[in-house]
Amino acid sequence: MENITCTAAPRLVHFAEIHSGARVLDVGCGTGVVALTAARVGAKVTGIDLTPELIARARESAVVANVEIDWHEGDVEALPFAEASFDVVLSQFGHMFAPRPAAALAEMLRVLRPGGTIAFSTWPPELFTGSMFRVTAKYSPPPPPGFGAPPQWGDPNVVRERLGSAVRDVCFDRDIMRFPALSPGHMRLALEQIGPMARLARALEAEPARLAEYRRELEALIATYFESNVVRQDFLVTRAIKV
User: Fold this and answer.
1) Residue 209 has pLDDT above 90, yes or no
2) Which of 56, 135, 194, 200 has its CA 20 to 30 A from that of 64?
3) Tell me, what's the pLDDT at 148?
4) 125 CA to centre of own chain
5) Does 1 score more than 70 pLDDT?
6) Phi/psi at 4 (5° precision)
7) Do β-strands 112-122 and 44-49 pair in parallel, antiparallel, or remain unpaired?
8) CA distance 139 to 142
């Protein structure tokens, strides 16, 4: 997945209009693809993620890329930074996994200076990745009360409501990632190596029939977006200015 999401990173960095010297926070930075992309244009970048293993890979990538980035392990719902610390706060498919959307957004805006830019990439609920999460949820235990489903962040109406009066000049656009795969089955195997799909596949090993049913349904969905050895993944980009 890292090699695919790195192709989307320049889109977000460009959409956020990041310039040399800007103080940038990459929330849910994962392996650092957005942080490194922003650093290469001269921004002063901080990356934060909840998963130590991902931060370790991000550090290794920064060394290879010969860029300086301030890496932190931490939670988007409790960012360890002072108010108005950053000119730009970004998230590429990261903050959308926070269980409490309001808390995550409040923290992202708290550390952003007035007049600064918040921008993020998310997956529309009606297209491939959003639909994939619905299939996965169908076979997973129910989430805790109040949990915000990640694809909700891909709905412009929901995003506008969540941002509310804290921002101005809300702007949306769309783009496409193309995931190389030899078949829907190959794509399904790749998905089972990451995140919720990996956890679900392991959990369903004790129920072979249900695991097979899940895999058939997932591959049928993938087939809808599969053509010429590529799976199309549409995503939404959002940008707004903090008032």
Assistant:
1) yes
2) 194
3) 80
4) 14
5) no
6) -80, -45
7) unpaired
8) 9
Residue 181 contacts residue 231 (beta carbons within 8 Å): yes
Helix (H) or strand (E) holding 178: strand 167-180
Which whole number is the average pLDDT over 66-87? 97
Q: How far apart are the first and last CA of the chain?
A: 35
Give me 46's structure tokens.
């901080």
What integer pLDDT is reported at residue 197 of this predicted model? Answer: 86
Helix (H) or strand (E) holding 112: strand 112-122
pLDDT at 142: 87
Task: Dump pLDDT digits (tens) for 81-123.
Answer: 999 999 999 999 999 999 999 999 999 999 999 999 999 999 9
Continuous H helices in the chain: 2-15, 33-40, 52-65, 101-110, 128-138, 156-163, 184-191, 195-203, 208-224
User: What letter does residue 33 receive in the DSSP assignment?
Assistant: H
Angle at 2 between CA 208 and CA 103, to 5 degrees: 85
Contacts of 14 (CB under 8 A, 6+ apart): none
Query: Which residue's entry shows tokens 């934060």?
Result: 48
Which run of H or E residues covers position 25?
strand 23-27
**Three-state DSSP state, 72:** strand
Q: What phi and psi, each to the nearest 5 degrees, are found at residue 183?
A: -170, 165
Cα separation of 178 and 129, whole Å?
12
